[in-house]
Amino acid sequence: MQSGVHTTNLIQNKTAYGLLLDAVNELGVEQGGMDTPISNDPDSGQPWRSRFDAFVLAHEERQLQTAAYILCAYLTGMRDSEIQAMQSGCLQRKRSADGIIERLTIRSVVYKDWQERGDPEEWVTIEPVGRAVEIAERLAARHRPRRKDDGIWIVLHRAVALDRGVPCGAADQSVSRASGRALRRAGRADNPAC
Fold it and tell me: How far apart are CA 115 and CA 120, in angstroms?
């Protein structure tokens, strides 16, 4: 069942919580809630994933933006701080003087010698990075007015994930597992909290 109500509101409001429990007992629950067609896995003939709901969609959106971030980092040679400084409209498509070659450039801020402000800079890039930047911008667009942030990596910010109801464990599950393994190998049993 997709109620659209944050769980903390239900817990704090006993009347709403009781009504919700009555509805669940009468109607039952269903995984998903969004009627998005899911294609079948060709090997098994079964859907490759469960249905989407608001929490899964937020998680998948964050995963997509993470993939775009990794692609930009890998294929541009930009430093982490320079990628994080990318703003909406940073991708430019320019034609050569003869109009034959299209060049893609990314405008951002270069931080060298630990400068606090940095200097504006352009990086020449390739089409897959251009597509990743366009996707990141589209994902960030609906969060921009509320967050008052022109960055294109808004979906990756922890506060945005938590605002959208993505639990800390779901948002950082793979990082927590990896850091836990590293700590155990180093002889420390404590796993950092989310």
Answer: 12
C-alpha angle with apex 160: 155 to 166, nearest 5 degrees?
95
> CA-CA distance, 36 to 79, in Å (whole number)?
37
Radius of gyration of the chain (CA): 22
- Taken in order 16, 18, 23, 28, the sign of the CA dihedral is positive
The tens digit of pLDDT for each residue in 153-173 reads 988 876 555 555 544 444 344
CA distance 6 to 19: 15
CA 52 to each of CA 34, 36, 75, 145, 171: distance values in angstroms, whole numbers, following the listed order: 6, 7, 31, 25, 16
CB burial class (10 A; 0-12, 13-18, 19+) of residue 40? Answer: exposed
The answer to whether 104 and 46 are in contact (CB under 8 A) is: no
